[in-house]
Design goal:
The complex is a heterodimer of chains A (312) and B (406). Chain A has 312 residues and is an all-alpha fold. Chain A has 15 helices and no strands. The longest helix of chain A has 33 residues. Chain A starts with a helix and ends with a helix. In chain B, strand 1, helix 2 and strand 2 form a beta-alpha-beta unit. In chain B, helix 9 packs across helix 16 and helix 15 runs antiparallel to helix 16. The chains are: A mainly alpha (312), B alpha/beta (406).
Chain lengths: 312, 406
């Protein structure tokens, strides 16, 4: 009898309004534990002068952040990240799109091509970076002998040890590694374009080029947005490929130094003999400032690109 | 009778089982980190000898490549997860770790009477000892492939002029004169130290530490200029050549000469057992005397958080002894034990001869010039590329000197 009463009692107003929040609690606790808490701790550390060793910690407020604003190596590294981003972005939106369009024509062995082109994405960048290091080596590498034997000897240079070519080499490896993403994202988007739209345009007399640029291309806007934002995040977070190809100092003479290697060097050091220049808190401040700047730029990118999607 | 025998046998077996279990329970495992993966087999052989003599102690050695060692150790120390035993550069680095509370004070807990005086003084920090040189010391000079130089009819260079001349001849004949892994700046910084040592010598180094001599003195600037001059002698791609790759190139005769330490020989042999090397001091910069630099291999310290400090002390003491040090000098590098001599090592003898003329301690072991090495490491690529003048490079280094009198 009591049981029946309980079953028939209607849920309270509070339960109806907020009961669903119980389902959010596990996720929220997890989010707090693995993201917000460490972030808060990192922010706390960034306001100290802690070297990363020992108990000598003094609160210095926002002094680390103020120093970053006049820290030349930070801007140099950010500039290299920006160069990588721009070149990779252009590469993905041209070569990546073109390859996706070719694959969308469903050529013979399409599955094979798709697998081969996507393979670099799933391979470890550390492993592939090491292979590229060997291939680009002027002493034991494959690339320069191949260039020489094919009449392109004038292109055979010390790729990774000349300031003018080292960043190009880093960009080439990054492009090779990331092309698969562009192809897959554009291919998925191309396959989602309704055939009726293309047929209607053709019936109205549009040629294939007009069909692509006037009908298909505008439909790819969401893919463009996603790829641009992902490329921005990926290129500004880049670390492994530079670390493997040119080392933590961004050799030669910091020509390939990016924010990832700069932060690593500042926070953890690179010398086996001297840790005097390690500044853990300063490195954390750089990482947090970079995260904030990236979040703001991502937000602006998405806002601008989404507006373009709506307009089309 | 049969029953009694069976009972006795069972009792004996049970007792044996219990005693085995007791030994197993008492067994202590010490974790140990070191930064020379290329020595792993040789170091393991020494540890096996120790374990055989001390069945209740196991040593778990983890070798971490030099580039990652500092970052990994510092993170582990801050997180309270560092091993029982770990290596650190002697001098300011060890003192900093001790001041941070990471090290056990070993003062008076170990018998250091076997150490040569230079090693004993290097681990003494104002009367305190925090680590000991169980894996010897090293001297850095210039290795050369004896067979290549003989085939080419050349002798190892001793001066700037000779080095530049040998370099030109070898390049004309299609041979890389010098193999230098320079991507992390460490080996070129050692070259600079030797170049500077060739000008100032041990007395000048004392003056530099006291503040009466400077890296910016006109004769000392020539040390940096010399390094810039020999940049074209380096193998193609030197500035992006990692240490491990450079070592392999050198061992595989991809160049005629390479700067290296006594401790590198084991690595060269691992890569190429047929390697035929000789050693001379690094050629002198203008107006100098050929020089070497000498330092201790990482000294070993005991984690202040270790639960097995007694066993760790037992291990360190054993490692300082003659059995371990004989193995160190015969298979790895120079020993710091005054009673031990190499059984048969021409290379170590040549290093001994090389450093007899003009030898200076490595900068990073001394408080007055401890940060100079880092400054050299961070800027030497610019010097080699010609993006920085020898004067500017010397000024950067001088800015890091903290004279003892100041």
């Amino acid at each position: 009898m009591i049981k029946r009463d309980r079953q028939s009692r209607p849920p309270s107003e509070f339960s109806r309004r907020y009961g669903h929040l119980w389902f959010v609690v596990p996720g929220l606790v997890f989010f707090l534990g693995v993201f917000l808490l460490p972030l808060a701790l990192a922010f706390g550390i960034s306001m100290t002068n802690w070297s990363g060793l020992g108990n000598n910690v003094q609160f210095i407020g926002l002094a680390n952040y103020a120093e970053i604003l006049t820290h030349g190596p930070f801007y140099r590294a950010a500039f290299h990240n920006a160069v990588i981003f721009v070149v990779i972005l252009i590469f993905q939106h041209t070569i990546g799109l073109y390859t996706a369009v070719l694959l969308n024509e469903k050529p013979r062995f399409m599955q094979f091509y798709r697998t081969v082109l996507f393979l670099p994405v799933i391979m470890s960048l550390v492993a592939t970076g090491f292979v590229w290091t060997l291939m680009l080596s002027p002493n034991i590498g494959l690339i320069n002998p191949v260039l020489k034997s094919t009449g392109l000897g004038f292109l055979a240079v010390q790729w990774l040890s000349q300031p003018g070519t080292a960043l190009i080499a880093v960009i080439v490896v990054t492009a090779w590694n990331s092309l698969g993403w562009a192809i897959i994202i554009y291919l998925a988007s191309l396959q989602a374009v309704p055939e009726e739209l293309k047929q209607a345009a053709e019936m109205d007399g549009a040629n294939s080029r007009q069909v692509f640029w006037r009908v298909v291309f505008p439909q790819l806007s969401p893919a463009f947005t996603a790829l641009t934002v992902l490329t921005f995040i990926g290129t500004f977070r880049t670390f492994d490929v530079v670390y493997v190809l040119t080392g933590p100092l961004g050799a030669p003479n910091y020509a390939t130094d990016v924010l990832g290697t700069l932060i690593y060097r500042t926070a953890f050091g690179t010398s086996s003999f001297s840790s005097g220049d390690i500044r853990f808190a300063f490195g954390i401040a750089m990482a947090l400032l970079m995260m904030l700047a990236m979040a703001a730029i991502c937000w602006m990118l998405i806002r601008q690109l989404r507006r373009r999607e709506i307009e089309t | 009778m049969k029953t009694r025998l069976t009972v006795q046998a069972l009792a004996t077996a049970t007792a044996c089982a219990f005693s085995t279990a007791a030994i197993a329970d008492d067994k202590v495992t010490l974790s140990m980190w070191h930064q020379h993966p290329e020595w792993k087999d040789r170091a393991e052989a020494i540890l096996e000898k120790f374990e055989a003599a001390h069945p209740h102690i196991d040593i778990e050695l983890e070798e971490i490549a030099g580039t990652n060692y500092t970052a990994r150790l510092n993170t582990a120390l801050a997180a309270g997860e560092a091993p029982d035993l770990f290596g650190l550069p002697a001098g300011p680095e060890t003192v900093a770790a001790a001041e941070a509370g990471y090290l056990t004070d070993l003062t008076g807990k170990l018998d250091l009477s076997s150490l040569v005086p230079s090693a004993a003084s290097a681990v003494d920090n104002d009367g305190k000892v925090f680590g000991v040189p169980i894996l010897g010391s090293y001297t850095v000079g210039l290795y050369y492939h004896r067979d290549i130089m003989e085939e080419q009819g050349l002798t190892p260079p001793t001066t700037r002029e000779e080095l530049l001349s040998v370099c030109e001849t070898l390049k004309e004949r299609g041979i890389n004169p010098l193999v230098v892994p320079a991507s992390d700046g460490i080996v070129p910084s050692f070259m600079y130290m030797m170049s500077a040592a060739s000008i100032m010598g041990a007395d000048g180094f004392d003056e530099l530490r006291a503040g009466t001599r400077k890296f910016t003195d006109p004769d000392m600037v020539k040390a940096a200029a010399f390094i810039q001059e020999i940049a074209p002698c380096l193998q193609p791609g030197a500035l992006s050549t990692a240490y491990v790759e450079g070592k392999a190139l050198a061992a595989m005769k991809q160049g005629a000469m390479m700067p290296g330490g006594s401790a590198d020989f084991a690595g060269y042999q691992e890569i190429n057992p047929e390697v035929d090397l000789g050693v001379v001091p690094f050629p002198a910069a203008e107006g100098g005397t050929p020089a070497t630099v000498t330092g201790l291999e990482y000294i070993f310290t005991i984690n202040s958080q270790s639960e097995h400090k007694d066993e760790a002390l037992t291990f360190l003491q054993w490692m300082l002894g003659e059995v371990a040090q004989q193995m160190v000098v015969d298979t790895i590098t120079m020993t710091t034990n005054k009673d031990v001599v190499p059984t048969d090592s021409r290379i170590l003898e040549e290093f001994g001869t090389a450093r007899a003329s003009n030898d200076v301690r490595v900068f990073y072991e001394l408080p007055e010039v401890g940060s100079v090495f880092g400054a050299a490491q961070n800027n030497i690529a610019a010097l080699l590329l010609g993006d920085m003048t020898p004067e500017a490079f010397s000024e950067l280094l001088q800015a890091e000197v903290k004279p003892s009198g100041s």
